[in-house]
Amino acid sequence: MDHQLTKRGLSEKEAHATKAQMSLPGTTARIRDEELEAILSEGDKGLLERPVSKRTEVVARVLSRVLIDALAVLGAMWFAYWLRFETSVMLNSFPPESIPILNAVAIPIIFLSPILFIGLKLAGMYDTHTRVRILDRIPKIAGAVNVYVICLLLASFLLSTDVLTRGFLVIFWVSCIIFIFAGRSLLHTLLSVAGIRDMVMRNTLIVGSGKVGKQLACKLMKHQDAGMRPIGFIDDDPLYTEFKEDGLKDLRVLGGLKDLCRIIGDFNVEKVVIAFTVADSEQLLDLASKCNKMGVDCSIVPRLFEVITNDIKVNEVGGIPLIRLRDKKIEGWRKVLKATEDYVLGTTILLLTWPVLLVTAIAIRMDSPGPIFFSQERLGKNRKSFGFMKFRSMCKDAEAMKDEMIGEDMSNWLCWKDKNDPRITRVGKWIRKYSVDELPQIFNVLKGEMSLVGPRPNLPKAVAQYKEWHTQRLNVKPGITGLWQVSGRSELPFDEMVKLDLYYIENWSLWMDFKIIVRTITAIFSSNGAY
């Protein structure tokens, strides 16, 4: 810290005084005028300023996306026309009544193209402040293209024209989705190669330097696809004034609540997030009002943010909002659809992987004494007990050795693992690395005890130690893989795992399961966090 302050222009004496002031509990570490001037000196100012204005950067990004999309539409039109009207295979198999000229086809497609761009805009494909993951682009693009093609069909029907034939539109519809997706992926790749982020990062000021504020800063640094770059904190009574976490070491408490307007101007703040402070509601309303007047977005982290997600209902009684927290469940048609997915995909996976199952069983038998399969009591949906199956990857007395290995470190025993666990056999090390040991759980899925995707099942003694809100993960069948496995695998603390499980239960869809399965396969082959 002393080195950072002296580097910014403060004398060693001033740096020691500043550090001492920051370390005093119960004091607000406001930056003094000379320190602020040093921070904003030419040497450090570039960290907070953009090479171009924010408006220019946003316009450039949006125009580049619109250009890519326009080229994709023209490319899809040309490809569909060539495939439908100029290839002998299509002409001989499905001879058209007439062959329109390309220019005639292009007129309605170009004229109605603003509908496609509006659809992409509403789907968030032109949002420059958040990153849309590759797999999430497909349904957004498909939805916008669907509306566009329907409008083309309606226009063709109302105008009684045969320029846009059904065969051409079917090919154009599929081609348009593929070409736009490919164009966006190419643009993303080119930006990545050039070292340019896929979104505009906003300088973000966090109100509240307590546990929640620090946790929020850590999340923003880790999940940069949110498009927010924390630049510091303000708090009248900060709990933390120095941060030892990676990525947070340069963050400071920049002042108190009354310094908000000055800090917004000095540090080019573009977003303010209120994350639990000792300030009363009137002060926070004044703070939000100041942000709005200065054109700065203002958000707030709600109380009970650990368990509140999207599945809430708000009622009002005499002007007082009442938030109803619903239990997390997969019910009704969603339950039927998920069960169908499990049986269909489970059977398919079993048929495709039986050679791997056979080879692994033989290798385990030849490698070490003991059974091929390892069965253990776990608790599933509604605390129902079942035999959890895995290929044996450890020595015979592995369970008896576990308590001794954990020892006194009980901080994270609910999901305890040791990267260098001596109980793991030679074959076990390999099958755990690529998650082959989990394949026998397909039989649990086909028996209706588990699902392909869902929360991981825990031991009865582990469930007995659950906090009350943890038990909501028992409202669905446990899964072979899940959202937390593809968000860090073995490296997340248990509370974070539960939060991801509850998010999954609430937002479940077939598309989400598909994305998790694809990301699981990627994580398996990268061996990230698996041991």
How would you describe what is shown here?
By secondary structure, the protein is an alpha/beta fold. It folds into 3 domains: 140 residues, no CATH class; 101 residues, NAD(P)-binding Rossmann-like Domain (Rossmann fold); 194 residues, no CATH class. Helix content is 50%, strand content 11%. The protein contains 20 helices and 11 strands. Strand 4, helix 13 and strand 5 form a beta-alpha-beta unit. The longest helix is centred in the middle third of the chain and has 35 residues. The two termini are 37 Å apart.
Question: Which descriptors would you attach to this protein?
Answer:
Rossmann fold; alpha/beta; 50% helix; 11 strands; two-stranded antiparallel ribbon; 3 domains; globular
